[in-house]
Amino acid sequence: MSAEKVRAYLEERGLADRITKHKETIDTVEHAAQQIGCSEAEIAKTLSFLVGEQPVIVVMAGDARVNSSKFKAQFHQKPHMIPRDDVERITGDLPGGVCPFAIPEGIPIWLDVSLKRFACVHPAGGDEFTSVKLTPDELEKASGAAGWCDVCKGWQEAGFSQRN
To answer: What is the pLDDT of residues 99-115, one digit of tens each?
Structure first.
């Protein structure tokens, strides 16, 4: 159901042609990169957190890891992921398919600067078999992002510089 909801959402924005349905699962960064044919870093992984009682979604590069102190500086709390058993109830998507599109009202979506170094990134499209290819600017617009944040580590060590 969620992939259909995402398709309708992206159709309204003229981006449905960016959706790809894969034969094999893309439930992890590694699986997604294999199926899409890109680097793991270009996968836009979507993580869901609880900040107090409020769910927050952060989309980051596949090679990035959340940095606790940076997260706390941004959200005034240490990162606490939504428990796996609660992800679908809160976000509308199953773990492995959480994406930054067509999520319930009131859940802010933040994009980490680790994504800006790529011409295109590949977030999930509502299930573990669907991806969407977008530029970072298209992702920002299509997701209705609250803004850009800098809450990750690890990706700078890969030798990439941020694209503006």
So the answer is: 999 999 999 999 999 99
Instruction: Find all residues with CB under 8 Å of 144, minimum gap 6, and list them.
Output: 109
pLDDT tens sequence across 115-137: 999 999 999 999 999 999 999 99
Nearest residue to 75 (alpha-carbon basis) of 65, 84, 67: 67
pTM (2 decimals)? 0.92
Q: Please answer whether residues 71 and 65 qualify as being in contact, where contact means their C-beta atoms are separated by less than 8 angstroms.
A: no
Gap between the Cα atoms of 135 and 84, Å rounded: 29
Shortest CA distance to 120 belongs to which of 163, 154, 151, 150?
Answer: 163
Q: What is the mean pLDDT of residues 156-163?
A: 54
Q: Mean pLDDT across the stretch 53-60?
A: 96
Q: Are 79 and 24 in contact (CB under 8 A)?
A: no
* Measured distance CA(95)–CA(139) in Å, rounded: 20
In angstroms, what is the C-alpha Rg of the chain?
A: 14
Task: Decide: 118 and 164 in contact? Cβ < 8 Å.
Answer: no
How many degrees, rounded to 5, is the angle at CA 114 between CA 10 and CA 92?
40
